[in-house]
Amino acid sequence: MLEARLTELRQHRAEVQDPRSDSYADLMLEEGRLLIRLEKMPEAWEIARAAFDIYIANENWQGAVEACDVMFAADQPDSLVALGQGIWLAVTFPVDPELTVAMLDHVIEETPDDSDGAAVAAVTAHYVVDLRAKGRQRDDLMFFTNNLIGTVARRHSKVESQEAFNYWTEKLELNDPAKFLVRLRNVVDVLVQDQWWFDRDAVRERLPVN
């Protein structure tokens, strides 16, 4: 069934008139996810990487982050590079907060228990949800990110009480967005190194408020 769906997707893609369109990239992304299920990781990486370039050119930030998520899942040499770029886009632009949380959660999963980066990622996820999410999604994600911060605090410093938690957040400067967002930028820089696939300054200029 998966192979049949893969063939169908490729046929649909061949019928799209503009290979630079979001609809074409959407089919590529769906194909990438399917290739991961088929455990064809290098192929999944390549097609998601191509979709990423189309999304960036079209200023489709949500699509670009989703492409980074597929590249991360493909577990290739530059998967962490993709993760870093996806996080930068997800935090910089108002994409779906659930996707942003998922990208930041990857950092937590990938870092050692004593990593400050995991704490920064967790509190940033909570901050983004507080800013962007509404209604039921907000309730669900606030609950999830609260638990995420608690889990990170326990594994990082064996935090079990409210008093210890307050001390921990102050010590790591997790209660000031101006500080923890700068630290998140450092985490992203470690992930990406110098392998940026787009001009961040040029992309940042496309924000409604620079």
* Mean pLDDT over the residues: 93
Pattern of helices and strands: HHHHHHHHHHH
The low-confidence parts are none
**Strand elements, count:** 0
Shape: elongated
Q: State the major sheet.
A: none
Tally of separate helices:
11
Q: What's the helical proportion of residues?
A: over 70%
Radius of gyration: 18 Å
Termini distance? 47 Å
Structural class: mainly alpha
SS strand fraction: under 5%
Your description of this structure?
It is elongated and about 60 Å long. The chain has 11 helices and no strands. By secondary structure, it is mostly helical. The chain has helices at residues 2-15, 22-37, 41-57, 61-73, 79-92, 97-110, 116-132, 135-157, 162-171, 177-192, 200-204. The protein starts with a helix and ends in a 6-residue tail after the last helix. The longest helix is centred in the C-terminal third of the chain and has 23 residues, at 135-157. Helix 1 runs antiparallel to helix 2 (22-37) and helix 2 (22-37) runs parallel beside helix 4 (61-73). Helix content is 76%, strand content 0%.
Question: Can you summarize this structure?
Answer:
This protein has 210 residues and is an all-alpha fold.
Provide the descriptors you would attach to this structure in a database record:
11 helices, mainly alpha, 210 residues, single chain
Write the layout of secondary structure elements.
Blueprint: H1 2-15, H2 22-37, H3 41-57, H4 61-73, H5 79-92, H6 97-110, H7 116-132, H8 135-157, H9 162-171, H10 177-192, H11 200-204
Helix pairs in contact: 1-2, 2-3, 2-4, 3-4, 4-5, 5-6, 5-10, 6-7, 6-8, 7-8, 7-10
